[in-house]
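User: quick one - fold this with nicotinamide-adenine-dinucleotide bound?
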Amino acid sequence: MADRKYQYDVLYIGSGHGTDGINELAKKGFKVATVEAEKIGGTCPNWGCNAKITLDEPIKLTREQERMKGIVNGQLTVNWPANMKHKHQVIDPIPNSLEDAKEGAGVDVIHGWAKFVDNHTVDVDGTKYTADKIVVATGLHPHQLNIKGTNLAHTSKDFLALDKLPKHIAIVGAGYVAMEFATIANQSGSDVTVLMHHDQVLERFYQPFVKKVVADLKKRGVKFIPNAGVSAFEKKNNQLFVDYGDGKQLPTDWILDATGRVPNVHHMNLRQIGVKWDHHGIFVNSHLQTKVPNIYASGDVINSSEPKLTPTATFQGNYLMHLFSGETTHGIKYPPIPTVVFTSPRIAQVGITVPHAEKYDFDYDIVVNDLSNDWYRQIDKESIAENALIFNKHDQLVGVTEVSDKADDAIDTLLPAVALHLSKQQIEQVVPLFPSIAHDAWKNL
Ligand SMILES: Cc1cc2nc3c(=O)[nH]c(=O)nc-3n(C[C@H](O)[C@H](O)[C@H](O)COP(=O)(O)OP(=O)(O)OC[C@H]3O[C@@H](n4cnc5c(N)ncnc54)[C@H](O)[C@@H]3O)c2cc1C
Ligand SMILES: NC(=O)c1ccc[n+]([C@@H]2O[C@H](COP(=O)([O-])OP(=O)(O)OC[C@H]3O[C@@H](n4cnc5c(N)ncnc54)[C@H](O)[C@@H]3O)[C@@H](O)[C@H]2O)c1
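Assistant: Sure. Structure tokens for the protein plus nicotinamide-adenine-dinucleotide:
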């Protein structure tokens, strides 16, 4: 532990998943604090994963009921205000309960905006705190298009707090946020148009699977405009317009700018104290150390090729806890990080991707399975259900991608095989219960 020349052994800026491990560090006897400018817990619980998945639950249910039509009678519809009320009931208590848990573990929770005074001192709204080590875990904020009328557009955070669902929503971008929110809004009764930058949706995902999801959304009335070239947002007589293409205008009631997220690195004096960053985030070495040796970074704010997701942030936060407590001196070594787009059906993947396996086809075998014929998928009539399994030359599963209503669970189930490089013999020793998604997923290996 550090000498007490500083108030804290470790001070974290931010309180999201990039700071996971902080409670354990406190329980190990370290003096630690977290500074949070907004809500305790950061993006994921308050205006990211948890908030979104709460709104998505009724969407999932209506889709399932639709498939079971004639067996389950009636027509389910989503009541948006009730769905939003339920989201508030589930999500709003989270910051307080996280704060209680932190304080219970011995973490000091400081509310306010942190900026560096020097490499051991942080100023929070006029009060100074000193620490031996400081972790910058400040995350990202939504990118805003630099075009005329940009202030007329809203962010993912605004969507997740909409009291009333607009009749028409224009979504700019075709990534995670665009596709998940297009699914939720469309199924809740809104008319949705997606304005794409190029001609690909979810460009980092296996395109044959993405195309199935897009075709399904189109059937449900979502419109996609490729290569839209959005140039301005306007308001005339209470009506909003998106200017795109060559003089075209899309009338709309609400605009969602879903063009990505950018690092929270400004107004903190990072450059002044020597921490280096660019528009992808803060540069760190394999110990998550910035150019200033006692200052570290964790979570989305890091400039890294790892996906900017909660599991990555949690892994980094826990790594720092082990590093600071002397339990490791090694650099961080990432396991395969899974990811899922919560459309309906979902698209999930982990490990080696299909395009990579196709490019290096001498190293890999790709097995594509149409899962819609599996009896287990037939029970709830999944018609879009396919996976691609990627094996290396030792017959070990090294990557999976799946499109289906159960893709998230199926990928999670197969994670140990991918992460631990299980052999065929080891896989035979895993006996999932039956019937289950785990059994269905493991039987194809
Ligand atoms: C709409 C949406 C849906 C998502 N869904 C998923 C999902 O389903 N699954 C998934 O894995 N990931 C999802 N993500 C991504 C996930 O939320 C992030 O990867 C994760 O929250 C990153 O955690 P973090 O701690 O790095 O950053 P954050 O959670 O963003 O925390 C950073 C915190 O730092 C605070 N802060 C910033 N600057 C300062 C300062 N100077 N002083 C004090 N505090 C400061 C901020 O207020 C913020 O609370 C989603 C993201 C969004 C936007
Ligand atoms: N399920 C999940 O895990 C999940 C869900 C939501 C968000 N997230 C996280 O949040 C991040 C941000 O999500 P996102 O959807 O905002 O970003 P994204 O990077 O997934 O997608 C951004 C989209 O905006 C488009 N775009 C970029 N510049 C544009 C421009 N000038 N005009 C029009 N379109 C433009 C891109 O082509 C892309 O389609 C994700 O990368 C991910 O890390 C994760």
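One thing worth noting: The mean pLDDT is 97.
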